[in-house]
Automatic annotation (TrEMBL):
Signal peptide: none
The protein's required cofactors: Zn(2+)
Protein encoded by which gene: kynB
Chain segments annotated as coiled-coil in the UniProt record: none
Residue sites binding substrate per the record: W18
Lineage, broadest ranks: Bacteria, Pseudomonadati, Pseudomonadota, Gammaproteobacteria, Oceanospirillales
Enzyme class, broadest EC rank: hydrolase
Organism in which the protein naturally occurs: Billgrantia tianxiuensis
Keywords carried by this UniProt record: Hydrolase, Metal-binding, Tryptophan catabolism, Zinc
Catalytic activity reported: N-formyl-L-kynurenine + H2O = L-kynurenine + formate + H(+)
Chain sites annotated for binding Zn(2+) 2: D54, H160, E172
Cited SUPFAM superfamilies: Putative cyclase
Keyword check for Transmembrane: no
Designated name of the protein: Kynurenine formamidase
Pathway annotation from the record: Amino-acid degradation; L-tryptophan degradation via kynurenine pathway; L-kynurenine from L-tryptophan: step 2/2
Length: 210
């Protein structure tokens, strides 16, 4: 059986979230015991909690919500590239030495160690020109371990808009620390939240046979 890599953040109280966004909470609604046969929990969270898929409606007034996106973009062959040296922005010159001539999905590792316990504003971003290059090579999805493709303080969202221009999908907040660069199969389906601007994903990489 092929080895699986779970590249999702664990959703837990106290996990870092985007400044000002909704903190994650899980509280018991029902508790297994003498007078109740089951445990049931109530969740409070942002649509952008942990590892998540951005919908076009997140940054474009006329964009699709997450329940209407093409799911085929979130399943299939992908390549993981090590971009830890590309600080503070992944530019085409960082990608060209390692980017295959043809790709469908690209995941970029930028953290030396994923910051599970603190919010970090100094995450690595993507230049719009890098999005163009990935699209030229056939990419249908771009995934990053950073919380966003664009800087924390940025209202232009140039990388996001280049992604939409090329009809690509976005995954953010992946955990790639334990994944060697190389080719994998990606499965990272967003929850079907009607009308939502994003959704958490359980992102998995499967090692390819041979």
């Amino acid at each position: 059986m092929s080895r699986l890599h779970d590249i999702s953040q664990p959703l837990r109280p106290g996990m870092p979230v985007w400044p000002g966004d909704t903190a994650f909470a899980r509280e018991p609604s029902w508790v297994l015991g003498e007078h109740c046969p089951v445990n049931v929990s109530r969740l409070t969270l942002s649509t952008h909690t942990g590892s998540h898929a951005d919908a076009p409606s997140h940054y474009a007034a006329d964009g699709q919500p997450i329940d209407e996106v093409d799911l085929s973009r979130y399943i299939g062959p992908c390549v993981v590239l090590d971009m830890r040296h590309a600080v503070p922005t992944v530019r085409p010159e960082h990608l060209l030495p390692v980017l295959p001539k043809s790709v469908e999905r690209v995941l970029l590792r930028t953290w030396a160690r994923f910051p599970h316990d603190e919010w970090r504003s100094d995450f690595t971003t993507l230049a719009p020109e890098s999005i163009d290059l990935l699209a030229e090579r056939g990419a249908r999805l771009i995934g990053v371990d950073a919380p966003s493709l664009d800087p924390e303080v940025d209202s232009a969202l140039l990388a996001h808009h280049r992604v939409r221009h090329h009809g690509m999908a976005i995954l953010e907040g992946l955990v790639l620390d334990a994944v060697p660069p190389g080719h994998y199969e990606l499965v990272a389906l967003p929850l079907k939240l009607a009308g939502a601007d994003a959704a958490p994903v359980r992102a998995i990489l499967r090692e390819l046979e041979g």
